C-alpha cells in the first residue's frame, strides 16, 4: 500500500482494507448516555450541510466537499439523524458540543477550554491559571482520569472518562468543546527506484539524472512528526537535533517502523535528501506498528511549538479523520513561526475531509509519478485531490533511508513520500530567507511551482508541480551565519567576545546592541562600561559575506564593586530522561584566592516541564552545589536570578560548570544562558 494521510485516520496508506464510510469529519451531537449516542451517531446515514454550502449528490466515501479550501473549515456544520429524526446540537443542561470522529478511542476525549478559562505558556494573564493546573482541577472535579495536558498550541487536555464524567464535562461552562480521541496509523509498501529529487530541479521531462541545488540548508531545522528516526544512520551524521516522543511510557525517539526514517531521508538525507545539511529532529508520534492517536499527535505538535529553533519546518506525513483539535493545534504551530507541510492522503478522496491536510495555511501535498501523472497505485489507492491540495510532488517509487542498518535504503510510495520533498524545499527557501514567515514560505513554494504538468483526473486540484530552484535571494550555496558570544564583567565594565560562525563563508559585519540606549558597536570583541549597576539585555547581529544575518540575545549583569560576572550564552540541548545530563562551562583565569561566600549564580533554562530538572553548579575541583532539584510544578522553564551561593572553599580560577539533567520523559529543552558573579 502507498504511504500518506488517509481519510480513515491512517498515515501512510489510507486504504489498507478499510471499507468506504458513510460520513467523514467532525460531527456535532448531544449526549444522553454519551457512548450510546456516539455509537448511534456513527451509524447515521443523513448528513445536513448549513445554508450557503452547495449540496452534493452521492459524495465519494461520505466526503462533504466545500466550495473552496478557504470555506471548508467555516462552512461545515453537521447534524446527524437517528432513524427519522435529527439530534439537536445540544440537549438542555449540556453547554458544550461533543464532536465525534471516525475510529474513536473508546472512553478517551480531548477537552478544549474557552479562551478566558486558562492561559497558554506564552500568555501572561493575571489571575488566570495555566492549562495543566486547570486540567488537574477539572479532571478531579469531574472524576475523570487526566492523561495529558497541552500548553502551547491547544488550550486543552486529554481525559479518560465514563458516561457520567463526560456528561459533567459537557455541562462545565468553561469548556468550549469536547472531541473524541481518534486512531491513526501508518502502512508502507515497497516498490522500485527513486527519481524524486531529480524531478524537483527541472521544469520539464525527461529527467536529467542530476539534482542541482543552490543551498544545502545548513542551520535550518526540520521536525519530522512520524515514527521516529534511526539516529545513527549515515544519511544524518552530525545533524541529529533533539527530539520528543509523544508515545505514553516510551520516551525513545528511535524508529522501529521505518516510515519516519524514510521521510527524514527525503527531507534532509545526505544522499536521498533535498536539504542535505538541514538539522533533523525526531518527533515520535506513532508506534512500532504505525498506530497513534490524535491526542498524541497534538502532544507532538505542542512540543514542536515550545521547542523549535527557527528557521523551522514540520513534516506531517500522516492523517486523521477531520479533527477540530488537530486543526487548531496546527494553526497555532504555524502562528509560532513553523512552516507545516502535510500529506493529502492516498484513498482517492477529497483532501478537505481530514486533518491536518484540510488546514488552509498548511502546505498540502498530492503525489505524482515519474511521468508527471497524479499517482494511482490501485483502484482505491490514489493520491488525494481537491481544493485543499496546494501542489503535487514526486511520491511513487521513492528511495530513501531505511532502518535495517545504519546505511540501509528502502523504496516507498505515497503522499507520505511526496510531502517531505516539499518540506525539504521549504528548508532550502528558509536557508536563504531565514526571516520568512510560514505564510510567505507557503506563497513562495506555490508561486514557484511549475504549472500544467500533472496529468490524470485532478478533480479540482491545482495543476502545480514542485520546483526546488528559486530566483533571487542571497547567492548560490549561502547558509546563514550563527551568532554567539561570551562576556566577562568587572565592576561596571564588560568584555564581550564574539564566538559566531559561518559554515560556508565569513562574518562580514557585526552590530552590538548593549541594551542601555548607547550607540551600537561594530567591533568584534568590544568592551563596554555601563553607567549604572544592573542587568542589561545585549544582542549581537552578525551578517555573512552573502548578506544573510542572525541575532543572539542574552543578559549581562554589572555591579559597582570589584566583582566580575562571567557568562556563557551558548545554547546546549538537554537530553530527555538522561541521568548524566549536559554541562555548560565558564573558564575563569587571572584571579587570585577563593570565591566569596556571597557569590551569585543566574540561570536561564528553557524547558517545558520544570519539575523534570536537576540543576547543579560544579566547581573546578568537582564539588557540587545544587540549585534546583525537581522542584516547582508543570510550568515551563527554570529561571534563577542572582542566587547567593557560599563558594568560599573554592578557588576562583578554573572551569566552572552548570550541569543540568532531565530525569523524566516526554518534555525537553535547552540551557539558554547562565552566569556566575564573584
UniProtKB/TrEMBL annotation:
Where, by residue number, is the active site? 226 (charge relay system), 259 (charge relay system), 416 (charge relay system)
Source organism's superkingdom? Bacteria
Q: Which molecular-function annotations from GO does this UniProt entry contain?
A: serine-type endopeptidase activity
PKD domain sequence ranges: 477-563
Q: Which GO terms describe its biological process?
A: proteolysis
Alphabetical UniProt keywords: Hydrolase, Protease, Serine protease
Keyword set includes Protease? yes
SMART domains found in the cross-reference section: PKD
Q: CDD domains from the xrefs?
A: Peptidases_S8_PCSK9_ProteinaseK_like, PKD
List, alphabetically, the GO terms of the cellular component aspect.
extracellular space
Supply the InterPro entries for this chain. Galactose-bd-like_sf, Ig-like_fold, P_dom, PCSK9_ProteinaseK-like, Peptidase_S8/S53_dom, Peptidase_S8/S53_dom_sf, Peptidase_S8_Asp-AS, Peptidase_S8_His-AS
Q: Which residues cross the membrane?
A: none
Domain called P/Homo B: residue spans = 561-678
PROSITE patterns found in the cross-reference section: P_HOMO_B, PKD, SUBTILASE, SUBTILASE_ASP, SUBTILASE_HIS, SUBTILASE_SER
Family per similarity comment: Belongs to the peptidase S8 family.
- Give the protein name, as stated in the record: PKD domain-containing protein
Task: Please name the source species.
Answer: Lysobacter silvisoli
